[in-house]
Fold:
Amino acid sequence: MSLKNEIIEFIEEKVSTSEHSDFFRQPLVGFSSADDPLYDNLKDIVDPEHTHPRDHLPEAKTVVSFFIPFSEKIVSSNKKDKVAPSREWAKSYTVTNNLIDYISSSLVEYLESKGIGAAKIKATKPLDEDILKADWSHRSAAFIGGLGTFGVNRMLITPIGCAGRYGTVIIAYEVEPDKRSEKEYCLYYENGTCSACVQACPVQALSVDGFDRFKCQEQLTGNANLYKDLEECSVCGKCVVSCPQAMIMSR
Structure:
């Protein structure tokens, strides 16, 4: 079995056997070259402080991106109220972040046992308060790795949807990169027929022309007070679950 398939099966097994496996569907895994010029471009596209794979692992050869999609019950739960996130949605945020960190750490340990250097990037990283951006974008790495295309809601829409979360592991081993999608998954960008995410945003932070991340963050911070018994859960997700492409049942 190739290392590529080993990694895919490793991640799939960790998700399917996790304590809250009913929160998830089968994950997607994508691979990109650490030499892909798009990683250099992220300093211009995302933020000047965005890091390069080799900032995390000097001998980096390949970036492994994985998407853990939420199950139908998690997505549906967050459609019931137009403003407040559901408890299930809030819990899924913390559960998934913990799972991503566990998978990433376990994969690094597994690869190192095979003599392959690797480094994980945490599921969530501190935001620069002036611009509300972190120094690594899991979604941008996943785009480079061919997992999907960006929507108006700023989510990466994959062949199985956009409701879920992403992780990244960087490895010192060359794996054949995946091709980027030629299909546009966002219906607005494909043919202008949809703006459901814009209409669903409770604070009008979204438009088809831009995104006010400060309005969004204010809403997220307020929502964190709704479920104080849970771990940090600054969540909303209305722009995600309202998207017709939140869940694409192709697998």
Observations:
- The mean pLDDT is 95.
- Residues 3-241 form one domain.
